[in-house]
Amino acid sequence: MSFLSATLSRVKPSPTIAVSNKAAEMRAAGADVIGLGAGEPDFDTPAHIRAAGINAIETGKTRYTAVDGIAELKSAICAKFKRDNGLDYTPAQVTVSSGGKQVLYNALMATLNPGDEVVIPAPYWVSYPDMVLLAGGTPVAVECGIDVGFKLTPEALEAAITPKTKWLIFNSPSNPTGAGYTRSELKGLTDVLMRHPHVWVMTDDMYEHLVYDDFTFCTPAEVEPGLYPRTLTTNGVSKAYCMTGWRIGYAAGPVELIAAMRKVQSQSTSNPCSISQWAAVEALNGPHDFIAENNAAFVRRRDLVVEMLNKAEGLTCPVPDGAFYVYPSIAGCIGKTTPKGTLIDTDETFATALLEETGVAVVFGAAFGVSPNFRVSYATADDTLREACTRIQTFCASLS
């Protein structure tokens, strides 16, 4: 009998973390590696937010807090939801965790029973299916390919729902594709959900403020108020506020669900870092002008990467609406061979060969549920992106 839990056999380690670790190992060994796997901004946390964290240390706000967040942060979150999304929540409807991932995990652990199904549009963030499996549920991936803009259609959602469906996990703009749902597209999905009152909605709005061109963000409970009683609206400060390492995620939803999530957290991590919570208060309540400045850089980087990858032989790279990822197809490379003799039969072999032969680290598409693709994070310097894309172009041109 194995000493380890059988539950672990159902899940795999995060592929994005694995890619970052592999790139770090090669770099430490002296290789010239460009890592495009990590999903975090390269900008520093803004000064006023850092100052709030320093002030929390200097004024002794370093002790345990309430299990799922200080009152000041919950109030700031309620104000944010009202200001940005037109959603009214009370502090009793709000939970704060050590990152958005923990918020989602707490909700799944608090609600899933064996046999419960969770609909997950693919491409998906790599952790969604495995968190469902760890919680004892069954992930139901619905493939949304490049032909539908990597977005779930009402027809596909309708077909995926069964009497066992408990949740739909909804992410817009998307990690890994950057695809965002317009209000009319989202209304088509919420209309389906209104016909199935047993299905709850778990949103992942982490990239809400990282949207470009004329795209306007909206979230399900905002589009369809009828879904409000069965929606967990999840967000965090990691991406837009350049606070990935501070580890603060939050959500709002029905009081009973929030209480159940609090119970899970009370017996796992307890409260999020007190210092990070005070920094998050400043992030939500303080000035936001830096977001537009950062987004201007992201648009420039997005356009650079999209243009260069579309010039690579065998690649097709759609233009994303938000986040800081592109998700190009490598369909034109499948079946070809690298100069070192590697047959490109999957996007995983493509990504492995690209790393080993050019030093560019990307995440293969199968990790996100749709192939043959790979994900590039363009949250890094322009010159670095230009060099990486040049290497990708050279690599693709070398295939025969």
From TrEMBL:
Key word Transferase present: yes
Signal peptide start and end residues: none
Catalytic activity: L-aspartate + 2-oxoglutarate = oxaloacetate + L-glutamate
Cofactor: pyridoxal 5'-phosphate
InterPro entries: Aminotransferase_I/II_large, AspAT/PAT-like, PyrdxlP-dep_Trfase, PyrdxlP-dep_Trfase_major, PyrdxlP-dep_Trfase_small
E.C. code: 2.6.1.1
Keywords attached to this entry: Aminotransferase, Pyridoxal phosphate, Transferase
Family: Belongs to the class-I pyridoxal-phosphate-dependent aminotransferase family.
Protein name listed in UniProt: aspartate transaminase
